[in-house]
């Protein structure tokens, strides 16, 4: 436990859309009970010729979701006969603090609350060569998978470069790769920090022990 003393505490937990400042009622634009502008799958509002994207319509309020929506809207305005949707699943997020925190998919608590079967695997940064060299004793990668389909249900990484390390797991979830395919279907550069992800994935296959690189080994 840390004791921290300060003169003030800033609590910035969440944001709300300021759609009222735009007076959507004047144009007849529909908003939901939380003040978000309502759109269809093509980002069209209920008023012909008016589109909406980003924080004003997406409850996630993330820049990368807004970027995807902007690409869809730009295409749809130019090509009205060939509309595209903004495919946002799965939606990852990261906190760029110290340490970084990156997540995608379900948390274990969410799955427990719904009674959905799941298995977990945790691997510490310290247990791979790069983490050992960093003398890291606090950070880890936690993965959650479905025991039947072997698909990844969630990934949560706390530590340096976590916003980068999780990208491979996002891609694996998106394209339906099993945890075994993600673990064994490619080579992981040694001694990079991506071995944290590799070894966490390998823990879902108890018959094949995870690779624990020797930090003192000479690599050519």
What does this structure look like?
With 220 residues, this protein is an alpha+beta fold. It folds into two domains: 19-78, FAD/NAD(P)-binding domain (3-Layer(bba) Sandwich), CATH 3.50.50; 93-202, FAD/NAD-linked reductase, C-terminal dimerisation domain (Enolase-like, domain 1, 2-Layer Sandwich), CATH 3.30.390.30. The chain has eight helices and five strands; from the N terminus they run ααββαβαββαααα. It has helices at residues 24-27, 63-78, 108-114, 129-133, 162-165, 167-174, 179-184, 195-202; strands at residues 93-95, 101-105, 119-124, 140-145, 152-158. A five-stranded antiparallel sheet has the order 1-2-5-4-3. The longest helix is centred in the N-terminal third of the chain and has 16 residues, at 63-78. The relative contact order is 0.10. Residues 215-220 have low confidence and may be disordered.
The count of domains is 2
Count of individual beta strands: 5
- Write out the CATH superfamily name of the largest domain: FAD/NAD-linked reductase, C-terminal dimerisation domain
CATH class of the largest domain: Alpha Beta
Helix-strand sequence: HHEEHEHEEHHHH
Q: Could you tell me the mean pLDDT?
A: 92
Taken from the alpha-carbon principal axes, the silhouette is globular
Q: Low-confidence spans: pLDDT under 50, at least 5 residues?
A: 215-220
β-strand amount? 5-15%
Share of helical residues: 25-40%
């Amino acid at each position: 436990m840390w004791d921290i003393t300060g003169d003030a505490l800033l609590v910035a937990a969440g944001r709300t859309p300021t759609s009222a400042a735009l007076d959507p009622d004047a144009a007849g634009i529909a908003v939901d009970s939380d003040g978000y502008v309502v759109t269809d799958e093509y980002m069209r509002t209920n008023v012909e010729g008016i589109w909406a994207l980003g924080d004003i319509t997406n409850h996630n309020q993330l820049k990368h979701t807004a970027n995807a929506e902007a690409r869809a809207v730009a295409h749809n305005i130019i090509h009205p006969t060939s509309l595209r949707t903004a495919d946002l699943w799965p939606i990852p997020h990261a906190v760029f603090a110290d340490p970084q925190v990156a997540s995608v998919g379900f948390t274990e608590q969410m799955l427990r609350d719904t009674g959905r079967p799941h298995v977990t695997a945790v691997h510490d940064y310290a247990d791979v060569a790069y983490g050992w060299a960093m003398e890291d004793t606090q950070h880890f990668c936690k993965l959650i998978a479905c025991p039947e389909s072997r698909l990844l249900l969630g990934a949560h990484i706390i530590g340096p470069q976590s916003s980068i390390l999780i990208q491979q797991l996002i891609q694996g979830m998106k394209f339906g790769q099993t945890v075994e395919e993600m673990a064994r279907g490619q080579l992981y550069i040694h001694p990079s920090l991506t071995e944290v992800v590799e070894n966490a994935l390998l823990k879902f296959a108890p018959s094949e022990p995870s690779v624990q690189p020797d930090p003192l080994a000479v690599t050519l």
